[in-house]
């Protein structure tokens, strides 16, 4: 029948237009002016991180829907994106990327915002918007697609179909035709059914993507590490890999045990930490904590592969990192020339991202407590990898700080509140990171530092040059002819912000990452750093510290003077 032939052709053409022509123009936005934020605040920093995270997670076929958060209360930002079920991965990614950039222009300084595009929507809010229905905002989005594929054929089919439909209806009203009202109703119903099925199909595809994504997310969170048994290595295997823990394979000696290089039968190189037997932790506690630490997966963290608990031995097995530790290069006058400015700047950024992951982006909140140059490993690309979680503390989701009577760490990197009062938090790691930045810039080691001009430590020395307007004099002389002045000065500024004595004045690692990557972010003026060995009240730092003053055999190396050994249940 001509009518049904025309209708089928018209429907096919409509579907072709709908699925091949996708507009990238924004359709609408929702920006309530009752809630705003001040630029360059913690909320602004967290929002930038969230939008960047949303954009980077729209790159795989399963990520048509994604939710995430950034920051801690009261400055937490919740966000999500949803791509249309029939768009490609590239179209989804491009749409989300555009939306994450344009939403700040569409809704400047808003703590709540939503933007709609033809291919996707993106939304963020200062309150939790996940798994809740919100009917307060709705819009009608008409089909903005024009008939650009075959306009003449489309109009011809549309006119023919509508004319025939009108003629059939007129014949039926006059009673002179054979077409009944039921036929007309059937045609209309058919059209509606096709439209409904099409809509349901799109919806099902979106929900399927969401379900698959959630499944993948749950699997990736576990990384197939569900029991200690999945991480267990036989002692015989490790013994063979390290040539029976031979002296030739020994690559480091730490305060909590020796480190050996090994090669598994598969050819994979590993670093094996042989813990000292004075650790009082029970076997089950040890295994449970290893499972937790093994779930930390980030390109700027050394990966823990597993453990061995046999013959009264406690062994930790790591990925092998070939280019030794940062201190091996940084504090050696002959080797530091291999660290040009671009490499040092890359290392600073890598350390910052690794600490941010520990503090905010992993399933656990980890306080490292022993960040130092010898615990920063360098891979084949000279990218930084944080190692040694033996002194780390695992916090609960809502826990922000802890106290201890057993102060462990390395003198020169410890924050004053930790060294003097045993108080540690994410800001303790920020202080250590600040010391690291200054060491990387100057090539000088803080705990061996002394200047005859009155500066007792590296932060004080950096502060003096900062106040005198001569920050570039801090720069390692080997970098004199190859550096970026703006990057150097900004890194010194960030380092001084991190080593401030006032805990609350130190930036979060989220802010630090933004500072390193965005020159539009205004930095606060730093305060005077603490005087090493003396508190703000004049009391001295206790000299008896259970410090990991270990030495590493840096002729060969892998996992440095690691102290990831006393893994205590938190």
Topology (SSEs and partners):
Blueprint: H1 2-20, E1 26-30, H2 42-56, E2 65-70, E3 77-83, H3 89-106, E4 113-117, E5 120-125, H4 151-174, H5 181-222, H6 235-241, E6 250-254, E7 257-263, E8 269-275, H7 283-294, E9 304-310, E10 313-319, H8 326-330, H9 341-361, E11 365-367, E12 376-378, E13 384-386, E14 393-395, E15 401-403, E16 408-409, H10 416-421, E17 423-425, H11 426-442, H12 458-468, H13 485-498, H14 509-517, E18 546-547
Parallel strand pairs: 16-18
Antiparallel strand pairs: 1-4, 2-3, 3-5, 4-5, 6-7, 7-8, 8-10, 9-10, 11-14, 12-13, 15-17
Account of the protein in words:
It is a single chain. The protein has 570 residues and is of the alpha+beta class. It has four domains: 2-9 and 148-222; 22-125, Killer Toxin P4, Chain A, CATH 3.30.430.20; 229-319, Phosphorylase Kinase, domain 1 (2-Layer Sandwich), CATH 3.30.200; 326-547, Transferase(Phosphotransferase), domain 1 (Orthogonal Bundle), CATH 1.10.510.10. It contains 14 helices and 18 strands. The strands form six sheets. A five-stranded antiparallel β-sheet has the order 1-4-5-3-2. A five-stranded antiparallel β-sheet has the order 6-7-8-10-9, with helices on both faces. A hairpin with a 5-residue loop joins strand 12 and strand 13 (384-386). Residues 15-22, 209-225 and 533-570 have low confidence and may be disordered.
Briefly, what is this?
The chain is 39% helix and 15% strand. With 570 residues, it is α+β, with helices and mostly antiparallel strands. It has a 5-stranded antiparallel sheet.
User: What would you say the CATH architecture of the largest domain is?
Assistant: Orthogonal Bundle
Distance between the termini: 76 Å
Estimated radius of gyration: 31 Å
The CATH superfamily of the largest domain bears the name: Transferase(Phosphotransferase) domain 1
Q: Determine the strand fraction and express it as a percent band.
A: 5-15%
Output the number of helix runs: 14
Amount of helix: 25-40%
Number of strands: 18
Number of domains: 4
CATH class of the largest domain: Mainly Alpha
Low-confidence regions: 15-22, 209-225, 533-570
Order of strands, widest sheet: 1-4-5-3-2
How many strands, which pairing sense, and closed or not: the largest β-sheet?
5 strands, antiparallel
What is the CATH third-level topology name of the largest domain?
Answer: Transferase(Phosphotransferase), domain 1
């Amino acid at each position: 029948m001509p009518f049904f032939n025309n209708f089928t052709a018209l429907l096919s053409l409509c579907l072709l237009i709908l699925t091949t022509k996708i507009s990238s123009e924004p359709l609408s936005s929702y920006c309530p002016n009752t809630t705003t934020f001040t630029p360059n605040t913690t909320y602004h920093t967290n929002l930038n991180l969230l939008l960047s995270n949303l954009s980077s997670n729209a790159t795989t076929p399963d990520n048509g829907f994604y939710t995430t958060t950034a920051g801690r209360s009261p400055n937490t930002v919740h966000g999500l994106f949803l791509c249309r079920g029939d768009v490609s991965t590239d179209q989804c990614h491009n749409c989300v990327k555009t939306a994450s950039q344009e939403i700040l222009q569409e809704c400047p300084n808003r703590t709540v915002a939503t933007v709609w595009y033809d291919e996707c929507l993106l939304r963020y809010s200062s309150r939790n918007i996940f798994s809740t229905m919100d009917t307060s905002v709705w819009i009608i989005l008409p089909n903005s697609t024009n008939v650009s594929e075959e306009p003449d054929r489309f109009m011809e089919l549309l006119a023919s179909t509508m004319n025939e439909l009108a003629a059939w209806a007129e014949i039926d009203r006059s009673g002179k035709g054979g077409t009944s009202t039921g036929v007309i109703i059937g045609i209309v119903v058919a059209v509606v059914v096709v439209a409904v099925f099409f809509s349901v199909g799109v919806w099902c595809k979106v929900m399927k993507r969401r379900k698959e994504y959630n499944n993948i997310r749950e699997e990736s969170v576990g990384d197939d590490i569900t029991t200690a048994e999945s991480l267990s290595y036989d002692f015989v295997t490790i013994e063979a890999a390290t040539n029976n823990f031979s002296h030739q394979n020994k690559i480091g000696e730490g305060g909590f045990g020796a480190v050996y290089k090994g090669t598994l039968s598969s050819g994979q190189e590993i670093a094996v930490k042989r813990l000292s037997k004075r650790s009082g932790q029970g076997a089950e506690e040890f295994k449970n904590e290893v499972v937790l630490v093994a779930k930390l997966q980030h390109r700027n963290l050394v990966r823990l592969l597993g453990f061995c608990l046999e013959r009264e031995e406690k062994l930790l097995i790591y990925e092998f990192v070939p280019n030794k530790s940062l201190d091996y290069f940084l504090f050696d006058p002959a080797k530091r020339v291999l660290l040009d400015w671009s490499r040092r700047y890359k290392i600073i950024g890598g350390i910052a991202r690794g600490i941010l992951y520990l503090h905010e982006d992993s399933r656990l909140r980890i306080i490292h407590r022993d960040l130092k140059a010898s615990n920063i490993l360098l891979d084949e690309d000279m990218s930084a990898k944080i190692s040694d979680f033996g002194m780390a503390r695992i916090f609960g989701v809502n826990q922000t700080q802890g106290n201890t009577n057993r102060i462990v760490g390395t003198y020169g990197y410890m924050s004053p509140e930790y060294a003097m009062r045993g108080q540690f938090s994410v800001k303790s790691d920020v202080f250590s990171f600040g010391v690291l930045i200054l060491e990387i810039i100057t090539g000088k080691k803080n705990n061996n530092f002394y200047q005859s001009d009155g500066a007792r430590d590296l932060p004080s020395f950096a502060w003096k040059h900062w106040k005198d307007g001569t920050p570039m004099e801090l720069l390692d002389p080997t970098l004199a002819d190859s550096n970026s002045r703006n990057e150097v000065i900004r890194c010194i500024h960030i380092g001084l912000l991190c080593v401030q004595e006032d805990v609350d004045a130190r930036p979060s690692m989220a802010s630090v990452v933004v500072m390193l990557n965005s020159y539009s972010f205004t930095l606060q003026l730093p305060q005077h750093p603490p005087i090493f060995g003396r508190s703000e009240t004049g009391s001295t730092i206790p000299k008896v510290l259970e410090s990991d003053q270990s030495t590493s055999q840096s002729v060969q190396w892998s996992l440095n003077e690691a102290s990831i050994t006393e893994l205590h249940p938190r």
